[in-house]
Design brief:
eight-stranded antiparallel β-sheet; alpha+beta
Length: about 180
């Protein structure tokens, strides 16, 4: 029993470590509490070798995202009213034997070309919000886009305290790696 526990802790620790400097993707997840309810505070940043206009096009093509974002099984635009989009998403989160179906109805507010704000309408999260912030940038002499992602999530299902940060961090890292790979095609 001790060996599997140590193995899980080693994997969790590896997922919590900062990203290597060569891929410039950094994801930090902290478990916090508000009114005795635990939630995850997510902060990530990355650089994509793509113009801000291309980044905007990819990030706002919501219905194509399941083609390349792991754990996102479906996305459907329910309605669009100017800069406000209501989007339905279905997916799965977690790792190994800890998996959970996720269904969300979210409100997306687009502020071209620099930010996208996401807020929960309904679904199996108690709290869910995210922000994508885009700005032109340069890295190692290459022009592109600096991407900052922040979010707060509070699932309405159990997330084990010892590995919760690693689970959330792993899912966010996979999502951002997939988005950046799509941007740099």
């Amino acid at each position: 029993m001790r060996l599997p526990f140590r193995f899980l802790m080693l994997l969790a620790t590896m997922l919590i470590l900062p990203a290597r400097a060569d891929n410039e993707l950094q994801v930090v997840v902290q478990r916090n509490r508000a009114a005795e309810q635990p939630f995850f505070d997510i902060r990530a940043n990355a650089f994509a070798r793509a113009t801000p206009e291309h980044v905007w096009q990819v990030l706002t093509d919501y219905e194509r995202q399941p083609e390349y974002v792991p754990n996102l099984a479906g996305a459907r635009v329910v309605s669009r009213n100017g800069a406000e989009v209501v989007l339905e998403q279905n997916g799965r989160g977690g790792f190994f034997f800890i998996r959970h179906a996720i269904h969300l109805l979210i409100r997306v507010t687009e502020r071209p070309p620099s930010s996208i704000d996401v807020s929960l309408i309904s679904g199996n999260m108690k709290r869910y919000g995210a922000r994508w912030q885009l700005s032109p940038g340069e890295q190692a002499g290459v022009s592109g886009t600096r991407i900052e992602y922040s979010g707060i999530i509070e699932p309405d299902f159990f997330v084990p305290p010892l590995v919760g940060n690693a689970i959330v961090q792993g899912d966010v890292r996979k999502m951002l790696e997939a988005v950046i790979a799509q941007l740099e095609k």
